[in-house]
Specification:
single chain; 39% helix; 17% strand
């Protein structure tokens, strides 16, 4: 007579509908069993083996000894057997209920344990980004950057393929959340990457925390609330509002000599945070913000907002995402001859990129000052490497820029963390720890790391548009090393923080 283990094996082998898992469990009774797809069979085999341990009567048909088979008919032939079966019926039903509940609990999620030497599948990196819509130009530049790094490493880290699963959220908060849910719940991504829109990132980070999936901002998404208050699974590898605006606000007062300024931009979290951070720093240094002018994100006709400007100011700090809107801003600025009236511009890097505004308006841009974390002409081996790769892949129709550099650095940082855990992305705790411990050299920053809140620490610059060697371009005039995100609440414009 075969023993219990061999009977289990025979049952599985004789029923092709039964699925044997790789994992073989050994009970405290020393009996091996295989988890099967047919729940009734699973219950039966668990029941006949574990019922004795739950106090089955000695003469119960389930009190089998090893190698013994006893049927209900055999038991019922004796009066004592019939009495025992009747008296113990309630106990048996209760035991069945307990085992069913146990089986249901175990069936909810059985973690997969790879066998030694088994080859793992690709690392699935989902990216929820704005390929169309108001901030699509920015996100597409970021995409060029992270694809450049992935190409450089052959879409592999620690011997594992990196599979990118990317969807367009159309710069729509609702669609962005739907995309995040699809990536996590249907595509089963290991890491959820994100593009630019701060409002969507704020909403998605809570969902990622609930699902316990690492959420990594690869593009701008600078609003304070993306990383504050901190969440375990959220990282932003780029920058936070205030990291560039606070140094620039002080610089505008102390070095550029501005005393009265206006802040202008679209009314959404990714803009108002920057405007308010600049406001805080400039006024703390001794200056005065005399006007704050806001409009809807995606607004193209800026003439009514320029018309609101009062004459008594020295300079404007504007922030606008998207190339078309930026060009419209400058067209209006020059059309009103504000430059000739001595009204200066001191702004975010988006507004003075070499690849578009400077190429479009040329020498009219001279003297404009901006904060930045990248500069095209920056002299470092890392920047030369990045620009050589960039132009080899994309040509020189569009110059290398801040957003592309951010995408490149973010993906490099993420992959460095993955390499540190030998690509074992399934170990989420190890990945989170590696993200906090990773340090890389940036294209221009001496070092990039993340703080305890998961936000990037990096160098920032003040640069100015100058004519150098016959070319109109940005030139770094001040470096602020290893700038951290400001404290919680510092960049929340009153009435705009939620």
């Amino acid at each position: 007579m075969p023993n219990d283990t061999s009977r289990n094996t025979d049952i599985c082998e004789s029923n092709p509908g039964i699925h044997k898992l790789q994992l073989v469990c050994r009970s405290s009774l020393g009996i091996e069993w295989y988890s099967e797809r047919d729940s009734n069979r699973i219950l039966f085999h668990l029941f006949i083996r574990f019922y004795p341990a739950l106090g089955a009567p000695e003469h119960s048909p389930f009190s089998l000894k090893k190698g013994e088979i006893r049927t209900g008919q055999n038991i019922r032939k004796t009066k004592k057997g019939r009495e025992i079966m009747e008296k113990r019926s309630v106990l048996r039903l209760g035991t069945i209920f307990i085992l069913c509940a146990l089986l249901l609990t175990l069936s909810i999620k059985i973690p997969y344990v790879a066998a030694a030497g088994e080859k793992k599948g690709p690392i699935r990196l989902g990216i929820d980004t704005e390929l169309t819509g108001a901030v699509s130009e920015t996100s597409n530049n970021v995409k060029m950057g992270y694809e450049l790094y992935l190409q450089e490493i052959g879409y592999k880290v620690a011997g594992r393929e990196i599979k990118i699963i990317e969807y367009d959220n159309k710069t729509d908060y609702k669609i962005a959340m739907e995309v995040a849910q699809k990536l996590v719940e249907k595509d089963n991504v290991h890491i959820l990457g994100f593009g630019t829109s701060s409002g969507a990132a704020i909403a998605i980070r809570g969902y990622a925390e609930k699902m316990k999936v690492p959420f990594v901002v690869l593009g701008l998404g600078g609003a304070e609330q993306v990383t504050l208050p901190p969440l375990k699974y959220t990282f932003r590898l780029t920058y936070a509002d205030g990291q560039g605006e606070l140094p620039l606000g002080r610089y505008a007062y102390e070095k550029l000599g501005y005393r009265k300024m206006v802040v202008m931009g679209p009314d959404y979290a990714g803009s108002t945070g920057k405007l308010w951070a600049f406001n805080q720093a400039f006024e703390k240094a001794g200056g005065k913000i005399v006007q704050t002018i806001l409009w809807s994100l995606g607004e193209m006709d800026l003439a009514p907002y320029f018309a609101q400007l009062k004459p008594d100011f020295d300079a404007i700090f504007p922030f606008i995402p998207g190339d078309i809107s930026i060009n419209r801003f400058f067209s209006q600025y020059f059309e009103m001859q504000l430059d000739k009236k001595g009204k200066k511009l001191c702004t975010h890097w988006d507004m003075t990129e070499d690849y578009l505004p400077i190429q479009t308006f040329g020498e009219k841009m001279l003297g404009i000052t901006s904060e930045a974390l990248y500069n095209l002409g920056y002299d470092s081996p890392e920047n030369k490497h990045f620009t050589d790769l960039y132009y080899a892949k994309y040509g020189k129709k569009k110059l290398a820029n801040n957003q592309a550099a951010l995408g490149y650095e973010s993906m490099k940082f993420l992959c460095t963390a993955l390499a540190a855990i030998k690509g074992n992305v399934e170990d989420t705790e190890a990945f989170l720890k590696a993200m906090h411990e990773t340090k890389i050299k940036g294209t221009c920053s001496s070092l990039i790391s993340v703080d305890a809140n998961g936000n990037a620490i990096r160098d920032f610059f003040v640069r100015q548009v100058q004519k150098k060697d016959g070319l109109v371009r940005n030139v770094v005039i001040q470096t602020f090393p290893q700038v951290r995100q400001p404290p919680q609440g510092y960049t929340l414009m009153p009435g705009k923080g939620k």
